[in-house]
Amino acid sequence: xxxxxxxxxxxxxxxxxxxxxxxxxxxxxxxxxxxxxxxxxxxxxxxxxxxxxxxxxxxxxxxxxxxxxxxxxxxxxxxxxxxxxxxxxxxxxxxxxxxxxxxxxxxxxxxxxxxxxxxxxxxxxxxxxxxxxxxxxxxxxxxxxxxxxxxxxxxxxxxxxxxxxxxxxxxxxxxxxxxxxxxxxxxxxxxxxxxxxxxxxxxxxxxxxxxxxxxxxxxxxxxxxxxxxxxxxxxxxxxxxxxxxxxxxxxxxxxxxxxxxxxxxxxxxxxxxxxxxxxxxxxxxxxxxxxxxxxxxxxxxxxxxxxxxxxxxxxxxxxxxxxxxxxxxxxxxxxxxxxxxxxxxxxxxxxxxxxxxxxxxxxxxxxxxxxxxxxxxxxxxxxxxxxxxxxxxxxxxxx
Length: 399
Description:
Blueprint: H1 4-9, H2 20-39, E1 43-49, E2 52-59, E3 62-70, H3 71-84, E4 96-104, E5 107-118, E6 121-130, H4 145-155, E7 160-165, H5 172-181, E8 190-194, E9 205-208, H6 217-224, E10 231-234, H7 240-251, E11 255-260, H8 268-274, H9 279-285, E12 286-298, E13 304-305, H10 309-316, E14 324-325, E15 337-348, H11 353-357, H12 362-372, H13 377-386, H14 392-398
Parallel strand pairs: 7-11, 7-12, 8-9, 8-10, 10-11
Antiparallel strand pairs: 1-2, 1-6, 2-3, 4-5, 5-6, 12-15, 13-14
Helix pairs in contact: 2-3, 6-7, 7-9
């Protein structure tokens, strides 16, 4: 891996020459980054405390303490992190964003750095994005066969809009990129608007949103429609203007993919109405809505049958279920879990369009979903637990 020491030596800095303390901070930061990459952490949190600095990793969605440093090392390490991310080390009153790259042989990590002032100094969070992670297909993402088929059918259409919902960190970007890679890159022009661009893909044009200079989703989307695209990915529908432009693009012959923050798939419909999208326009453009969550995947090396398997089978009415529980072993570093699994709710819009056009409520839409037998997030999560891929407790935690 290209160490922090090497990285800092090869780039100009307005900082004073590094002292022994600065060198120690650089080596410490380098060690922390290597440890995070080795353990598969998605984020590193540097949290200033009155008596020092707490460093935690987010592993499979859970926060784990990694290291505590004394107060004498706190400010030097945070300053070194800001230099590494090309931030202004003299500005400590305002939030800042930065970026950097780390390489190790055939691996490459893009890092996103963010600072925020606190009462005990600046908090620093570094997100690690593994650029060598292979693109996953729908089965690897955890989509059931009927769900994957419904998504492929929606993607096969020449125009319309597909919405994927879920909270921040639920894997929506990964699923949307998998959807883009299922499409023909050679015959059609694909362009994405993202904040930030997390993964770089050849054959797809990508634009990073920069709201500080006025490059918002809405302004970018308006300009992009003059670039003659076939397929658009709008990283997030945040405001009324973006929502209305996305629907307009879908109505004028473009296939649009985007995300919303809602609790389930059908909640996207009243949310879009709240953003000013007319029901008849939504009914004319919507092809599919989906929701997603991430649950921790049981370690295959040490998981064991749940002692209450018989009772759980009867309770959930799944006679052939294989409910398991976590144990912990060296392979999973005692956590009992390795990696994460996505659970989904995928609803093709077809049979819902008359209700959408008639301004039906979320409850009316949900009633039709249940009559049609569409699997909800809970049903899909329960099926994953019954297959021994995760636990009932993990499904309940995220839902």
